[in-house]
Fold this protein.
Amino acid sequence: MDKKDLLAKLAKLETINDQLVTELEYLDLLVRQIGFENGLTTLKSAALELIEENDDEEPPFAM
């Protein structure tokens, strides 16, 4: 790859990064609005806790 190709690739990656950051910020705002005090951090903790609780339960129709 020459310098021109690398610069084009960099510009594309910067655009993708900007889009992803914007989406994460918006998602963080949404989850705060529905009651997750610390946004995505709180949502992630709640999800992990639910998964852990479900792992501890015995599956239905277990033998």
Remarks:
- Residues 53 and 59 are 12 Å apart (CA to CA).
